Amino acid sequence: MSHNAARTPEHPVDSLFVDRWSTRAFTGETIPDSVLFTAFEAVRWAPSGGNTQPWRLIYVKRDTPQWDALFGTLAERNQQWAVRASALVLFVSSTLRARPNDPAEPLRSHSFDTGAAWSNFAHQLSKLGWATHAIGGFDREAARRVAGVPDQYALEVVVAVGKPADSSVLSEEFAKINHPNSRLSVKEIVSQGKFAFN
Ligand SMILES: Cc1cc2nc3c(=O)[nH]c(=O)nc-3n(C[C@H](O)[C@H](O)[C@H](O)COP(=O)(O)O)c2cc1C
How far is the CA of 137 from the centre of ligand 1 (A)? Predict the structure, then answer.
């Protein structure tokens, strides 16, 4: 995908970062395991506090018996477009660090680290020509139940994965907003030495 006006970098940067964006238009085609597992492999190599690797991923592919239950936990507005995804991947993170011979202790960086894992996942898929769209709007208690996630794990996000399609597969409302968006400028997010933001 080429950069559009909303995605013109201010400084030289690998196009990997600028090209990834969260479409809502998917073809619904079957995703090969080889693609999914390359993305899972990318997750594996994310950095984490003390190399604790607190992320755990639970995936369902469309047209499998497990799809309906996880799909059913998405907010209705998200279901409207995620219905054409090829897979849904639930990212959960361990809130506790297991210690041999000692009680588990809280793991402060579990969400931060799992964010890094999701970033690896999204960028690897983008590189392979597949799109991702993170979904925070889902019923966490229902997802915990249907995926059998123990209490120790926080439910972070469900990621819809699919081959990008033309926006015409979407309702008019979604088609209108289905384009890459922009970002704050570097000087709005970075300062030297002291916090200097509005
Ligand atoms: C943690 C998280 C939760 C999100 N939840 C939703 C959601 O519930 N529904 C939705 O349509 N998009 C959701 N998004 C997508 C964001 O709106 C999107 O990533 C953001 O606008 C930046 O656009 P880009 O990913 O195309 O660069 C979520 C993204 C993240 C990272």
Answer: 9
